[in-house]
Amino acid sequence: MKIYPVIMCGGAGSRLWPASRPGRPKQFLPLTGARSLFQETVLRVAPLAAEGDVVVVAGLGHADAISAELAAIGIEATILLEPEARDSGPAMAAAAAFVQRRDPDGVAAIIASDHHIPDAAAFQAAVRTAADEAARGRIVTLGVTPTWPSPAYGYICPDGAGLTAVKRFVEKPDAATAARYLADGFLWNSGNFIVSAAALLDELTRHAPGIAEAARAALPADLTGPLVRLNDAFREAPRISIDYAVMEKSDRTSVLPVAFEWSDVGAWDSVLATGAGHTGLHIGVDSAGTLVRAADGMVVATLGVSNIAVIAEPDAVLVCDLSRAQDVKAVVDRVKAEAPRHADVPDAAERAPYQRFGDWMRTAALPLWATLGVHPDGAFVETLTLEGRPVESRRRARVQTRQIYVFARAGAQGWTGPWRERVEKGLEQFLAGYLRPDGAVRNALNADGSVLDDGIVLYEQAFTLLALSAVHAAGIRTDLCEAQAGRMLDRLFAERLPNGGWKESGDHPYQANANMHLFEAAQAWAARGVDPRWNDVADSLAELALTRFIDAEGGFLREFFDADWNPAPGADGQLVEPGHQFEWAWLLSRHALNRGDERAMAAAKRLYVHGLRGVDPRRGVAIDELDDSLAVRSARARLWPQTEWLRAALAFAELAGGSEREQRLAEARKAAAGLALYLRPNGAWRDKLEPAGAFIDEPAPASSLYHIVGAFDQVCAAAEAGIITEAPFGLN
Questions:
Q1: 74 burial via Cβ count (<10 Å: 0-12, 13-18, 19+)
Q2: How far is CA 438 from CA 127, 491, 628, in A?
Q3: 87: closest CA among 266, 235, 265?
Q4: In what order do the strands lie in the sheet with 291-294?
Q5: Is 70 exceeded by the pLDDT of residue 52?
Q6: 66-70, 397-401, 481-485, 667-671: which has the minimum mean pLDDT?
Q7: pLDDT, tens digit, for every residue of 343-391?
Q8: Please, are residues 630 and 612 in contact by the beta-carbon 8 Å criterion?
Q9: Residue 393 φ/ψ region, left for φ over 0, alpha for ψ in the -120 to 50 degree band, beta for the rest
């Protein structure tokens, strides 16, 4: 028997307003200590899942918060995402269906996410005892021995002592009835249930068949990954609590009395009772029995008061007699009617991220790099300090070609700055300094223009071809562009490996990255329609990606290989880069559209999902490295993966419809927000974000602008397609 802790992460906690609101409900608040109630719950139940999984059931809107909370405590879980809230009955049914699919004999410990249980060991022992009974087909609830006649809780009437059948469940009583219940041996209903998945689904089929049917139908075929989205069949489930759907009707319910400290932390008086609810700066004079929570930067002073709560948030303050704490919901109802913007968490999101992105490109980035980022002879600088001063000891070919590409694309998007001059002079200097007699491109020059590295690097050839395609599309020196691209294409056909692909120079000769950029260049030249052989190159690289670069079982893309295109031995062969999952996903999706390749499109969509595995929810950025188990290998986050995430999210939003489009658009806005962290107002950028949240202090690499422009191109395409509606998007 395996126990699967299932954490129910719904509810708004309206009695804890203004701290708890729909966008930030109480389970995500640190009400009883330094950690949130949700984190405390996860840490309490995780030891029960030694052989099973921790499962969290929540709404789509809380996916990011849950991921961030889990990441902060280093625990993994599967998050079942409801397309809409349908109350506890359907939520628990979906969890049971999930557990049963994973393990037909699995026992679910269905636990509230927002309760206070400081004695984790006693709780775990109780769940294990209850699980033994649940394995025999019973639905066991934990009944807490009351310490006072609370009218805030529901009660359970047991049929005997110890672990016994439930005689009846009763609703929250008045004070007098609660006192009678206490005298008669009733227990508080904790709302925590331990039941085998099969038994719960059997009882739902018996008493609420519509819920059971909808829950089973809502499970997707693929249950892998940290996020499992229930499909729209879930919306058809009747909206009803598990108490009304099953517990009050079933003859299989049992109760296990427990004596550990417990609170549902449902109102401010119960927060005070935990002894740990105070936050912020409070100056109290002759103040007794007060609960004060002050937002950062605020001080709350009280004088001559007692038995009150003062909850001060940046936009709202509650002062409440603690004897009326259960009635705060009435205040919330008034707030919704008379001051509705204070009923939920203020929206701090950028309201026009794409317009701001376009303004930054037009007024800051392109002007900076077209002036301070250019030498007097027209060659481009390698890096600029954040104050706009050039720093370089070499001039790599890739920087020259990427910047030529950037300004050609800027012209295509309508920028009225000196893009043509930058392209023409940049191309002239590049061909004069980097073109070898054999038609290949040398790797790098010294800062004075002399040859530093005359070697032929596939990566540099690929970016030369990409730049030439963009210049050709701009109508600049088209004959020269075609002729040079043709010479390089002849070399490619002569150097193609017998088993596909091209070999790179250096320590990793068999790699996906250099071939990826050649794939990009081949697609760009195929679109120009000047030589049908470019389609051959693109098709062959797509096939190599689908059959060798992408793991056949996992669907993710590796970086390094041996001469037979098998994963390289050791750590090299285990490297998975989230940014390249996004970048390959975008390239394969474009190829699939151009060539009608459904297999490539399916692979592209799967790569995109794997890229999301590398998004750090705490910082909101795509990190640098995973391993082939998709665990974090390097949590540093460079700028360029954010651009590839944004580009891919918008591209797949355009291909999708309905809720999937909305999901991809939401992901695109997150990617845009992540990218914005790196961008400086003057048009420069930070490049590397450390795991602790600080940027490395170093100059901005010019090569990043290629990635930024690629993302902006996709923003413009999404606007043209009507996928996003902010304006203006052009650079003019």
A1: exposed
A2: 74, 9, 40
A3: 235
A4: 291-294, 308-313, 316-321
A5: no
A6: 66-70
A7: 998 766 666 899 999 999 999 999 999 999 999 999 999 999 999 999 9
A8: no
A9: alpha
